[in-house]
């Protein structure tokens, strides 16, 4: 699909990476200097985040985030699988439209439009349903790619044995496609987890919402959101690391 990078291109990439890293370090140093000048790095401002009650409150929000992400993932994967296995104009059109519509717009529809028609869901589902509708389109693309990566001969072999097409798909094609899809599914989970931060719009008590409440309570806005960002960073890096490990394991198995 592409040529192996030559020495000149590798040197160019190296120097671009070095310059980008220096610029990033400079921006971080400048930010720390500004924080120090404003007294934001004083130990007294960070001391509350060394106490268990504060972390218990934030971890409670993280747990709500994980629950919402898991519920969204289950619904989105089920919807994505249905869209991928039933290719027609409607499913293709749905996938294309939902991949272009902002998730926040769907949340606003769930929050303001549907209640006017008598459909007022609990806060949890006002977040989960629009996220699932949006991410189902992305999962559909992943499932299609996974199924397409399976050797067509596998399906033909199953059909030649007299197995119905649905049985071949369920017991022959999908199990093999899962090996190709797993790293992408984990990567998509990172995006899904970040989108749960829209829960503050519907007042769902996820991590970002709890961070906003905590910042309003203790007046430590910058410190609180840096800690919240750090929690998101740790969780998403762990998921990304898992995706890389799964991809490496799949590559070793394919050899």
UniProtKB/TrEMBL annotation:
Belongs to the binding-protein-dependent transport system permease family. The chain crosses the membrane at residues 12-37, 57-85, 97-117, 220-239. CDD domains: TM_PBP2. It is found in: Cell membrane; Membrane. This is Amino acid ABC transporter permease. PANTHER family: AMINO ACID ABC TRANSPORTER PERMEASE, MEMBRANE COMPONENT OF AMINO ACID ABC TRANSPORTER. Pfam families: BPD_transp_1. InterPro entries: ArtM/GltK/GlnP/TcyL/YhdX-like, MetI-like, MetI-like_sf. It comes from Lentzea kristufekii. It comes from the Bacteria. Keywords: Membrane, Transmembrane, Transmembrane helix, Transport. The keyword Membrane applies. It is a multi-pass membrane protein. The keyword Transport applies.
